Amino acid sequence: PRGGQPHPDEGHPPPLETVPVSWKGCRESPGGPAESPAGEEAQGEDSPTAAQLDVLRLRSSSMEIREKGSEFLKEELHKAQKELQLKDEECERLSKVREQLEQELEELTASLFEEAHRMVREANMKQAASEKQLKEARGKIDMLQAEVTALKTLVLTSTPASPNRELHPQLLSPTKAGPRKGHLRHKSTSSALCPAMCPTAGHPLTPDKEGKEVDTTLFAEFQAWRESPTLDKTCPFLERVYREDVGPCLDFTMQELSALVRAAVEDNTLTIEPVASQTLPAVTVAAVECGSTNTCALSGLARACRHRIRLGDSESHYYISPSSRARITAVCNFFTYIRYIQQGLVRQEVEPMFWEITRLRKEMSLAKLGFFPQEA
Most buried of 15, 211, 234, 366 (most Cβ within 10 A)? Predict the structure, then answer.
């Protein structure tokens, strides 16, 4: 040091760059002279510097390791935080899903309870309606059984050839039946039956004294129809009856009304009402158009009309003459008997049924020729 001034770093080890020669350089000097005592002294002086260098290196390595460890830990921490954030987001999403599922479950439970209550209520209503229908059906069955019994009694005790007048009060004369009030009504199936006695030149017909012979063709057609009774007009038996008897018998002058009458007879919806002579009703509009009590609505002829007909549920009435009534009732009697056969109410052999059918066809033929019973 110059000027006797103390060195500013006195008391501290000199920095690395101030060392003139490192100990490595001394050892690595190739071909150098043998170490002198002065070199040993210099080596002794350099020893503290090498130790300090090692300490510094250790400190530097420790710092590097510490920094690297700190960076590694920071990275791990950052990764852990990211994973934790993702898990929090997943937990939040699952929590929303759970809440949504719980809400849907509650709504589904409520709707199921409502549906169950509705089904129970409908089942109770249907059960009540079914019980009511069952009760009504049983009542109808009882009524139908009573009607079947009555019809069987009617068939067994009354036929178109010999009607039971107690079962058909409309056949009684006015003096025996008592005074009539208003209009007596009866359907075509229970219409006034034409008696077996029809005037022929002033003498009644006596079927018992007439000769009879079975027509084999007609009998074969009837037998075929009897095996499977039907009201189909296309079968040979009914096709012949329609062509030979029903059609001509219901073929009146007023063609349009004749067609309506024929359809009503086939459907069993024709009603014949006697008109009380002492109190003739006011003529309706429909009756004025088709006839009055002095004009037959079917033939158009001026005749005293003691009966009127009604077609189905219509409120229109048509006044008819005794001849027209006889023709209609003859056809109605035929249809009534074949309906009885179809329903199994006629308990007879085939031949007696055939002769009854033949007799009814005869009545239709006589009626269409103008023969009818005189009313009392």
Answer: 366
Q: What distance in Å separates the CA atoms of residue 178 and residue 173, rounded to the nearest whole number?
A: 8
Contact 290, 317 (CB under 8 A): no
Regarding pTM above 0.85, the answer is: no
- Give the span between the Cα atoms of 193 and 179, in whole angstroms: 21
Tell me the sheet residues that pair with 187.
271
| CA distance to 225, 245, 264, per residue, from 341 (Å) | 10, 19, 20
Query: How do residues 75-99 score in pLDDT, each as one tens digit?
Result: 999 999 999 999 999 999 999 999 9
Matching residue, tokens 């050892």: 27
Q: Six-digit token pair at 304? A: 């005293």
* Dihedral of alpha carbons 327, 234, 267, 150, sign: positive
User: Between the CA atoms of 105, 108, 109 and 114, what dihedral angle is there, to the nearest 10 degrees?
Assistant: 160
Residue 368: the pLDDT is: 93
Query: What pLDDT was estimated at residue 43?
Result: 52
Q: How far lies 189's CA from each of 162, 268, 340, 344, 371, in Å?
A: 16, 7, 10, 16, 21
The region that residue 3 occupies, defined by phi over 0 for left and psi between -120 and 50 for alpha, beta otherwise, is left
pLDDT of the residue at 118: 92
On the CB side of 48, CA atoms within 13 Å amount to 8
Give the Cα separation of 279 and 272 in Å (integer). Answer: 17
Q: Write down the mean pLDDT value for the chain.
A: 76
d(CA 144, CA 150): 10
Q: What angle is formed at CA 289 by the lines to CA 284 and CA 294, rounded to 5 degrees?
A: 80
Question: In angstroms, rounded to a whole number, what is the distance separating the alpha carbons of residues 79 and 82?
Answer: 5
